[in-house]
Amino acid sequence: MDFRLTEEQEALRESVRDFAREVVAPVIAEHYEKHTFPYEVIRQMGKMGLFGLPFAEEYGGMGGNYFTLCLALEELARVDSSVAITLEAAISLGAMPIYRFGTEEQKAQWLPKLVSGEALAGFGLTEPGVGSDAGGTQTRAVLDGDEWVINGSKAFITNSGTDITTLVTVTAVTGTRPDGSKELSTIIVPSGTPGFTVAPGYSKVGWNASDTHELTFDDCRVPAGNLLGERGRGFAQFLRILDEGRIAIAALAVGLAQGCVDESLKYARERHAFGQPIGNYQAIQFKIADMEMRAHTARLAYYDAAARMLAGEPFKRQAAIAKLHASTIAVDNAREATQIHGGYGFMNEYPVARFWRDSKILEIGEGTSEVQRMIIARDLGL
């Protein structure tokens, strides 16, 4: 196995790294503090083709694959996770369901603008009273003639309320199976549909420059043709989407963890205490060495999961391992980076303060750490 990048992959990584440092870094702190969405940054990311990385050229994509997306996410998250999660959710949760399961008509209608970054889409899965138990979905959709009538609510939905959000795919109960279990299906709900209400943005601990809302559906009517994929396959669809998304979140977590190394190295060389740079002290050296070790091993984990996915091999367990490990070490590295910075690490003017606040959600979003452990244990036969 060779985990070294190709020349093309390395060029992409360098391009996104430069963009993150030169375009994102100078403006993101203000967006973060004011809780504003960085539209201009997103527009430039669209022009770079980042939203089209894993999509076929026939839909306006770059013809790459999921691993190239992960490389971009890692480099963005080394500077800021709000921008990185906007890209991750826009692709893996927004456009990918349509790309994987949509009809040719649906793809032709929605994908070009999503792939170009001109528009964003959300993935309406989680509900206020359900959380990780997606099988307990309460939102319902009833077929009334040639329309679906949707009632219910969704929580913590990324990219669902921006000025360029064009749709949300919604999982809903559409019937009952012969065994009495719920029939779950996925339905496309365009933004602005009557009965579809987007609540004000959440007041969040972190990811303050990303877009997150609660959604409500009150007799919301959409055409029957907005069914995404086969009726009753919604559960299987979102499991597939989340398996892939866990690799992407792992890459984002690795980026945050590596960003903690970057900032700690910089600070350890600049900050003097007791007559010399604090980087001369073994206590600081060992902390940073451990942080680098964590980021490196977590990177190998998501590289492995992505390689299995692209080879068409089973990857569910490896994706869960990558997401679990990367999110755990991201929190560890953020804590250590804050400690290395001392009092300055508690000040929002330093990136590590953002890293510390942003790291915790990685152990929760797109499958909690407990869910990852469940997946791993079940795949081992327990």
Q: Give the ordered list of helices and strands.
A: HHHHHEEEEEEEEHEEHHHH
Which fold name fills CATH's third level, the topology of the largest domain? Butyryl-CoA Dehydrogenase, subunit A, domain 3
CATH architecture of the largest domain: Up-down Bundle
Q: What is the distance, rounded to the nearest whole angstrom, between the alpha carbons of the first and last residues?
A: 29 Å
Widest sheet: strand order? 1-4-5-8
Discrete helix count = 10
Number of strands: 10
* Mean pLDDT over all positions: 96
Cofactor: FAD
Keywords: FAD, Flavoprotein, Oxidoreductase
Protein name: Acyl-CoA dehydrogenase family protein
GO molecular function: oxidoreductase activity
